[in-house]
Amino acid sequence: MRIFYCCFFILSSTIYSFAQERDSLRTELLNQVNVTANRTQQKTLETAGSVSVISAGTLQTYQPRTTPEALMGSTGVFIQKTTHGAGSPFLRGLTGNQTLILIDGIRLNNSTFRYGPNQYLNTIDPFIIDKIEVLRGGGSVAYGSDALGGTLQLFTSNPAFSDKPAVHGKAVARYATGDMEKMLRAGVALSGSRVAFSGGVSIRNFGDLIGGDTTGKQSPSGYKDRAFDAKLLFGLSDSWTLTLAHQSVSQKHVPLYYRYELENFALNEFDPQKRSLSYFKLNGTTASKWASEISLTGSWQATNEGRLSRKNGSNSLRTETDKIQTSGLIFNIQSNINEFWNASSGIEIYNDQVESNKIDQVDGTSPVTSRGLYPNDSKYLNYAVYSLHQFKLDDWRFSLGGRFNGFRIKVADEVLGNVSVKPTALIGNASVSYLLNEHSNFYTSFHSGFRAPNIDDMGTLGIVDFRYEVPAYDLKPETSSNFEAGYKFRSEGFAMSAALYQNNLRNLITRVQVAGQKIDGIDVYRKENVERAYIRGAELDVEYVFSEYWKIYGSGAYNFGKNVTKNEPVRRIPPLNGRFGLEYRRSQWFVRPEAWFAEKQTRLAAGDAGDNRIPKGGTPGWVVVNVMAGIDTKHFAVNAVAQNLTNKDYRTHGSGINGVGRSLWLTLTGKF
After folding, report:
1. What is the pLDDT of residues 62-99, one digit of tens each?
2. What is the 3-state secondary structure (H, E, C) of 142-196?
3. pLDDT reported for residue 465
4. DSSP code of residue 23
5. Alpha-carbon distance 577 to 601, whole Å?
6. Is 122 in a helix, a strand, or coil?
């Protein structure tokens, strides 16, 4: 794999030299606009940071089964799959509650997001996504807690106004060999000069995942998924628009496959796994340079996570339920003060209410209700004020930003009584770019970040993975200092982005074993702010269009993490990974062979070595070859994805289930 990486670098340099003579051609890389980096529209080429944009066209090409799988192979993103119905994105070596996920600017992260991999990104229907932006290494100043590794933002599709009333519809069907997926999607869009509506329903049944040449069917791993979405736009005037939106997902009987395979469980599943989000957004423009654009967003989000478990040979069923209601309010002002200075400032407020309970029932007896994983009726208030500024001075670009964030956390614990804590954080960022010409950007940036302790950190009581956790109410925020230097270049025929970074992490919250204590024979742990670490790495993204119809592309990311406190690797650090491919696209059809790769990962923390999802000695490296092809016309589209042509048996590092084996996924779309 190291030989490949060297060859890849040489190839990048070679095609860069050829690209100087191919300015009549166009690349997609760095040709997009993003809003995530500074809460304002900005050309990705000119952004002083590492931002990837996955467009609607790219999503149409890949036809991802789930939202996490839409990120597979994306530069600097590594997807760990605890089970078939999950998918946790690693941004620069961090995941779970150390990365931030947004939907249309609204936090998906709530006060019970867990450390380490989780399944929450999989509760977003991939059919409602119009664009995904990934900001690696930043986001705390703009969006608050949790963005230690970066920020992932998903934008849902918007209906469009039209001069004359119009009706459009779409129906999508997908089937995968081995009955791994049967899917139907129906949507409709209505438009007028001042009103527009879009909505749809998705019905997806996933069968057991079939692995590579030695794995075969991994059972049980299949589940059912139902989703609904609706969005209504009102043009209140030429300057003001009101958006009303709702989305919901319900998943049933989502098995945690590795617990059946590697642990002593007859039943272990999420049932149900539900999420709903409703919001309004009022936005418009004014004549004032200090308030060029104003937006007000109010949101209501609810999650319902049920967990069912029963050990082999046991007649006792455990049912756990966690329900979180989140209300949010965001007020943002965009200021275009002059041609050299613009800013984005605002306030954010989120409030969580947590309900949690546990029911144990032995066959033939009455159920016994007790404290859930979290203290019932816990409350978590998150409030902030922020301001981000961008300055232009000839060929130089400067960015400065600051944020004050406060929290009020109230927990009513049955054992420890009422607990109230009020942590705060004051952070900032700064960057400098030098645009040598319209094609090049040299930049360096600094981002400070934080993650406030949440209710999962403070109030957990019960079995998590293979540990028994007890509450901890004296925690402080985790903090990060991310330094980055990079270079971006784009001509019409060639584009590249390269970055080096180091992220210093302090006050890390980690589980510490309570000496001499066991509950039901299981070691007892408590969270404490006792660790510091760093993660450093490099990223490279290259695209070259070498004829009217052909292009080649590739990307790679390397992360090296060290836990300084323990003098060992950081847990779950992804290995060197990336992708490379070739695309032929002409008129209405395309074909795209592509390879994903990951080096072996043998640098293991003690927690990795004790994790039954990681093979003894580490996770082997792999290369998987896929081919995508399709045709898209005015009234229909056909997409075929042939995955893992060599039927390689592989697993992404830290996952609890192997990747899909040789298979064909066929999608048919009808449009009117």
Report:
1. 999 999 999 998 999 999 999 999 999 999 999 999 99
2. HHCCCCCCEEEEEEECCCCCCCCCEEEEEEEEEEEHHHCEEEEEEEEEEECCCEE
3. 63
4. T
5. 10
6. helix
Q: Please, what is the Cα angle at 77 between 224 and 441, to 5 degrees?
A: 140
Q: Residue 671 CA to chain centroid, in angstroms? A: 30
Residue 24 has pLDDT above 60, yes or no: no
Strands (E), 394-477: 396-413, 417-421, 424-437, 440-451, 462-464, 467-470
Which residues share a beta bridge with 55?
Answer: none
* Cα–Cα distance measured from residue 618 to residue 350, given in angstroms and rounded to the nearest whole number: 40
Reply yes or no: is the peptide bond before residue 68 cis, omega within 30 of 0: no
For 177-186, how does the pLDDT look when each residue is reduced to its tens digit (9 = 90+)?
999 999 999 9
pTM across the whole model: 0.94
Query: Is residue 368 classed exposed, middle or buried when 0-12, 13-18 and 19+ CB atoms within 10 A define those classes?
Result: exposed
H/E segment holding residue 459: helix 455-459
Taking the C-alpha atoms of residue 267 and residue 669, their distance in angstroms, rounded to an integer, is: 37
Inter-residue contact 385 to 346 (CB < 8 Å): yes
Chain centre distance of CA 55: 15
The least confident of 4-8, 403-407, 599-603 is 4-8
